[in-house]
Amino acid sequence: xxxxxxxxxxxxxxxxxxxxxxxxxxxxxxxxxxxxxxxxxxxxxxxxxxxxxxxxxxxxxxxxxxxxxxxxxxxxxxxxxxxx
Length: 84
Description:
Blueprint: E1 2-8, E2 12-19, H1 26-37, H2 47-59, E3 64-70, E4 74-82
Antiparallel strand pairs: 1-2, 2-4, 3-4
């Protein structure tokens, strides 16, 4: 199942895509988070990284994508952007 939550606060728009799938193993999740935090560029699987970097370039380092996951439980990818 996939669930989309959109929350508007006074200062931010928070969008979360949540699934109850297989989740991501801890070591792979750590690699993904490390790549998001770095200047990583890839020629394949660029969607998450590209979106994150574009949001940071547009709105600053406090914004972008965050990923949470637990193997066997599912994954949450959240995006936060400011309300301008």
